[in-house]
Amino acid sequence: MKNLVILGAGTAGTVMANHLVKKLSVKEWQITVIDQDPRHFYQPGFLFIPFDMYNEKQVTREKASFIPKKCNFILSEVDNIDAEKNVVNIKSGKKKINYDILIIATGSRIVPEEVEGLAGSSYYKNIFDFYTIDGAVKLRQFLQTFTKGKLVLNIAEIPIKCPVAPLEFVFLADWFFTKKGVRENIDLTFVTPLSDAFTKEKTAAVLSTLLNHKNINIVTDFSISKVDSDEKQIVSFDEKNVEYDLLVTIPTNMGSSVIERSGLGDDLEFVPTHRSTLQSKEHDNIFVIGDATDLPTSKAGSVAHFEAEILTENILRYINNLELKEEYDGHANCFIESGFGKGFLIDFNYDVEPVPGKFPFPVIGPMSLLKESKLNHWGKLAFRWIYWYVMLKGLPIPGITATMSTKGKQID
Amino acid sequence: MAELKLGKYTVETGEDGYMTNPDQWNKEIAEEIAKQENIKELTPDHWNVIEFLQKDYKEKGSIPTIRRLKKVGGIDTKELYKLFPEGPVKKAARIAGLPKPKSCV
């Protein structure tokens, strides 16, 4: 009996377990999935919690319920991976789990401690994140009574999970305060280390215009050095200040501490990974998927979903001593909620930036790319159901392929 | 492809003004690019950053981030901003004759 171990039962790990259980012979392979948290969160839903559009219940399920019965699911913290000995050391019972193949799907996490003064006594008083369930829920409570002042959203460092979420947050905040009749008393400012609203040029132009229309200020090239919570201001390394009454932070995103303890990560504890095969650069029998990789594409559920199809194929090839397919192209697909019941949709890969067009089918769409529409907003809301009932099970989504299609896109 | 005249040298650059042929780079050219970036004089502290960028790029094939400059190169971030104000890595990479750093997604 051989062992395939999946570390992490988030989006990527769960989809891989569901794919592989159908492909590997149960007589030859034991699949083991290990995670420390029993709860599976629909993370795109965190964005809606502060604005009281979703509650905790709507974004939380049991992880175990998505792991196929034929897999061995272990709930335990992981001490480390000993890649030389092909062993995962888990904390529960101090057990050693041997593997023939390891899939790292340990995701990314926010680390507020990385910015001086951020994780102090004001955290969860007038400083909040919305990348954790705790942060999102506490921010919702704060927003109930916040009716005037300066709301500042700051991205500490790049890369971050779901790079469009901070923009969506300020768009929704504009709508939320307008609906409450207090928008004119609230100053909204988006502060980013980038030189523009977004990393991709055409998308940045569209979104900058939108920020402007919605009267949301933008401060670019702001590399945060510290939070001065006494003076209620954020300070950059070149000593620029932005004052806040409410600071919504996207703290530094890093890979799991397991990666750090195992010595397998880069400066941010993301695992160096081959960009088209998803094999680890250091160890042939380790594969990496989802937010845990160092790949230059978005850290997003859609990416994990697309990668999973290609990684499944490559795991089978690896087992059969065949050459790995260099197929993953960085494909990502993201809805961008823009407030007032509208949204955008973008579809891109390593080489092709988001452009206008129709998706998933040329001409008929029905979704529009890089264009604001009501249907895109409904698509985003419907996606929660697709996530729980289709995507996590590794089932195909009609018209959507693992590699990016240029059909229906207006490419220069 | 474009050309840039720097003192007595002419170098090949991309549309973004970053050099495309590393063989053409030398220290005098670096001084000229620094002037264009509003840095009057390259001090030993500037050279420390430039040389780390070149060495790391050679080894890793990508421009190091501010975090890596601090962690591996031992260069204090505040100091870095003083040496190369506004976008230090972008400026220092251009002076070092390296490609423009790619921002992630």
Describe, in plain words, how this protein is organized in 3D.
- The complex is a heterodimer of chains A (412) and B (105).
- By secondary structure, chain A is α/β, with parallel strands linked by helices.
- Chain A has seven helices and 24 strands.
- In chain A, strand 16 and strand 17 form a beta hairpin.
- The radius of gyration of chain A is 21 Å and the shape is globular.
- The mean pLDDT of chain A is 96.
- Chain B has one domain.
- Chain B has a two-stranded antiparallel ribbon.
- In chain B, a hairpin with a 2-residue loop joins strand 1 and strand 2.
- The relative contact order of chain B is 0.18.
- At the A-B interface, loops of A face helix 3 and helix 4 of B.
Secondary structure blueprint with pairings:
The complex is a heterodimer of chains A (412) and B (105).
Chain A: E1 2-7, H1 11-23, E2 29-35, E3 39-41, E4 60-62, E5 72-75, E6 78-82, E7 87-90, E8 96-98, E9 101-104, E10 108-110, E11 127-128, H2 133-145, E12 149-155, H3 165-179, E13 186-191, H4 201-213, E14 217-219, E15 224-228, E16 233-236, E17 241-243, E18 246-250, E19 253-255, H5 257-262, E20 286-288, H6 301-319, E21 332-339, E22 342-348, E23 357-361, E24 365-369, H7 374-391
Parallel strand pairs in A: 1-2, 1-9, 2-5, 9-20, 11-18, 12-13, 12-18, 13-14
Antiparallel strand pairs in A: 3-4, 6-7, 7-8, 10-19, 15-16, 16-17, 21-22, 23-24
Helix pairs in contact in A: 1-6
Chain B: E1 2-6, E2 9-13, H1 27-36, H2 44-60, H3 66-71, H4 77-83, H5 88-95
Antiparallel strand pairs in B: 1-2
List keywords for this structure.
heterodimer, A: 412 residues, alpha/beta, FAD/NAD(P)-binding domain, 5-stranded parallel β-sheet, B: 105 residues, mainly alpha, 5 helices, 2 strands
